[in-house]
Amino acid sequence: MKRYASATKTRERRALNHRAFTETVDAYVTLKSRSTISAVDASQEVGGSVNLAKPSALDFFCDVDNQVSIVVKGDMLQVFIERFIVGNELALTLEQANYFEQRIGQLFVSRGIWPTQKYFKVMRQKNNE
What percent of the chain is modeled with pLDDT above 90? Predict the structure, then answer.
């Protein structure tokens, strides 16, 4: 019975990591396709975000890129991009794709990047001073 419970937990964890990876990368690709780069005249006074603690799309891109760079090293980065960003399923073997999904998905969960809805939602905390 104990072995069955352990196998079930492993399957649930793997499913969670896969879901975290897939949903986060989908959000990344969607936001990248909607993003535009614009220049800002730093000499002009401009208003900033109302809530400075709320992460922006740029923060999200940086956080995702940082987690990917922990797992994907060297020349594999271009292959990773080809597979998961461009969508060429032949770029990686199934075993390689599963490895990346599990490791990076686990990082997305542990770092609070997934679920992305929660990532972009900021809870205000009272200062108890």
Answer: 67
